[in-house]
Amino acid sequence: MSDPTFDYIVIGGGTAGALMCKRLTEGPSHSTLLVEAGGRDVHPWIHIPVGYLYCIGNPRTDWMFNTEPDPGLNGRTLRYPRGKTLGGCSSINGMIYMRGQARDYDQWARLTGDDAWGWNKVLQAFKRHEDHFDGPDDLHGSGGEWRVEPQRLRWDILDAFAEAAVQAGVPRTPDFNRGDNEGVGYFQVNQRGGWRWNTAKAFLRPACSQRANFALWTRTRANRLLFEPGPDGLPRCVGVELWNGRELLTARARREVILCAGAIGSPQLLQLSGVGPAGLLQAHGIPVVADLPGVGQNLQDHLQIRAVYKIRGASTLNVLASSWIGKVRIGLEYALWRSGPMSMAPSQLGAFTRSSAEQAWPNLQYHVQPLSLDAFGEPLHRFPAFTASVCNLNPTSRGTVRIRSRRPEDAPAIAPNYLGTVEDRRVAAESLRVTRRIVAQPALARYQPQEWKPGLQYQSDDELARLAGDIATTIFHPVGTTKMGADDDPLAVLDARLRVRGVRGLRVVDAGAMPTITSGNTNSPTLMMAEMAAVWVRAAAAS
Hints:
globular, Glucose Oxidase, domain 3, alpha/beta
């Protein structure tokens, strides 16, 4: 391990990094090192779907980040989970398979000036690794590594909410992933036979582990990227300095270093390495390799506003899990049939609709759950209830990720700036009214829903926007902090092929590269981006 050299070094063994490694090692001619700061995905709660409750907030599997006090949240800070294990966030997330809307990718094509990012092109990348339970068709793939299955349970209260949404004008849909996700229905999930299906299972095992041209170093943190002068006058990334808990190591790359450390980790490592806003780097005594003002800018996230309704006459997880008998039943159902609450994604029912008639496309997403609690990680309430969480799919607020020091072990300052624009506050107020309109429909009347949070006493736009700041929380979808863009975009960190501007031999392939957030959950779009990038990296090697 003294100064080892590989063709490629991939930093981060999460969603994008796992796919990149499989694709880059499919031919024997090039070697790849995967560096993962966390451990292997052997923690049993990673693999049981409900285990996200024991992985988020666990330093074994979560980076344990927190946001800065946020003015839009009335000064609150939020826990900001990020996966710290093989599989990354795909090992701790909600398992929801969601592509977004076709217009998201057509917008990317316009912003980058490259039609490779248009819907018709990225659809093929989605299908390439997809293994859809319903088999292949024009919009879905079969036989790929990324398993998509229907959920293995249903709830009467969720069926009633779906019917109420239809009565409120939201159409039913059996599939949110056909380019237009407007509608209401149960989410499809990344599971196989009732077990979580993360990217470590899908792409690293057993394929990569059996290949002689693949090396995996876990529990190894990337401290900084290494640069040398290039023949064209631009700095070239030639490797990375690493810390494995015992000693400093240096690994070198003949061809490329590929950052897959996520929308928080990648900008942090770039800044620590001298690639970022010159003023920030100089303030921490870091020599400037490339002055890229956009590194750590443009942070976008989905903020969910959790409305809780007490009900009568229906089973919810609050009641089911409140007794030892109920817990035993839940455990037996999973042990025998891999179904029931232990097979649950955090949210089972979804809906996409518009906050007002003026919206040209669905701009709200619902995650509806047969449970309620004060905050994530807190005990379930003792009364029967459901939660209807709603988020603005296209927030206009922008935040930042900035290093606090030149020490790699210091967490960066994460400032999402939620509800930082008039438009986002207006949509927040409108979304709570849409929730009330759905809940008021006849389909839910027999359960006598009562708004427990935020409370019907809040009615005006100002009241509802302020209340959103009090009760809203992240859905864990940070993107955009190393965005790709056109040559004339001063904040574009990457070109359209995900290469870092101003240097050679370095790409970023993760959710940070998104110029704008997708209209839905972000895990599978990140996987699609890695599929696209793998083609370009291999093409560059062949040229």
